[in-house]
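Internal tracking record. Fields below are filled automatically when a chain is submitted to the structure queue. Please do not edit lines marked as system-generated. If the sequence contains nonstandard residues, flag them in the REMARKS field before resubmitting.
Queue: standard
Priority: normal
Entity type: single polypeptide chain
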Amino acid sequence: MDNPSLHKYYAVLKSRLGYRFFLGGARHRGYYSPGTKWPFPITHALKRMEDHLFHSLELQPPARVLDAGCGAGRVAVRLASHGLKVSDIDVVDNHVRWARQEIRACGLESMVDVRLMDYHRLDGFADESFDAVYTMETLVHAIDPEKALGQFFRVMKPGASIALHEYDHPDFDVVAKDMPKELRRSIEQVNRRAAMPSNERLLQGDWKRLLEDQGFRDVVVQDLSENIMPLMRLFYLLARVPYFFICLLGLKARFVNTQAAISSFRSLQMGLGRYVAVTAKKPGSRG
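SYSTEM-GENERATED OUTPUT FOLLOWS
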């Protein structure tokens, strides 16, 4: 399903440089033990989050998995190092090109294939093709998350696992008295400018409901908000001074990642947003 805002967001040089400079091309958060303050080295934390996802899938090599929204291919490289065979898909041309370069550089062409494909339409894959499906902070961009989850269900084998590392939040209308109006407005602006329609609409409890509506069972939602806070705090501190001048000059629309660093940390800190790891199973037994 076409999402022009998504292509525009990832085409902006500031977005590309930000992900490259701070996260080495990765598109996801790092995992830290509760109580950790120091966020470095960031690469170790990123790998810990990738390993958290790997273990949640409960797979043995050479299981075949679908990476729905692969970005630059960093997560696929990590999972391939654990012996899994990964099919990477992404709807952004540059992501597909960078992922292929990353896979070649790592010598993993036999373990990872990369395709330009929309996770709303997985026509290139037959029914019951995969032992698992995962997303790493990519389903927030879904225009129709129900359709995407339905496609995941179709291509998964009976007994297969799904793991979604995504976000949710309480109903802002319900918590309005406890939520600064400026923060709510900022979150809504970030969701729109960063092309995250699902992030805007999905409330706490919705992931479980959506998965069960598509036929998944044994849904577990794990709150990892505390585990990502060291990195989120770093982004917040780095963004504070630039954001003051960005607001002063009326340039928030041009610096969405800086705005997101401020609003995301504040919402997590106030309990007005969560980073969640959601797992579930397709009914049946693994062959």
